[in-house]
Amino acid sequence: MFRSKTQHFSFLVVTLFIFTGASTAWALRSDRDQPIDIRADRVEINEKEEVSQYIGNVHLKQGTLDIKADKITVYLSKGKLTKIAIRGNPATFKQQPEDKQDIVKSSARYMEYFASKEHLVLKTNAKVVQGDNHFSGDYIEYDTLNSTVKANKDEDSDSRVHAIIQPKADTDEEEPQAPTPQQ
Q1: Which regions of the chain does DSSP assign to beta strands (E)?
Q2: What is the CATH number of the domain that holds 139?
């Protein structure tokens, strides 16, 4: 009995540790050192299948990472993260990136994070906002390694992808010089 409880706790700790490591590609490094606070109506863990589910009004917070969902499912293979599935109406994901000033805010009915590719996929009423830049569509894929975004519509949908991209301020321009008085 003691061994079973210890194994169960170990699986939960490994799951949480791996889950938080998933966001490191686009997160502040300091987020990794923050405590994980997960609140849900219930938790289900299947050690044999290496799947853990957090169900009902789920709120996960670690540093600047803030996820709200109806359900979060974490999939492992041989103790390593393979995928995280996030469901909600909508599910929301916010985090401060390492190299950007503005927080990335995402929402969709369904999100998946694929660890091996470091891709975040948003499906159904998907939106990504960073500062004044907005992307929306039925399907958005964010490649965290290369900082690229792809947005598409569903084949059966009449909706279209919508993007608003603000120009970057040109910081390399020299300030205009005041005319020198001629003598």
Answers
A1: 37-39, 42-46, 51-62, 65-77, 80-95, 104-114, 119-130, 133-143, 148-152, 162-164
A2: 2.60.450.10
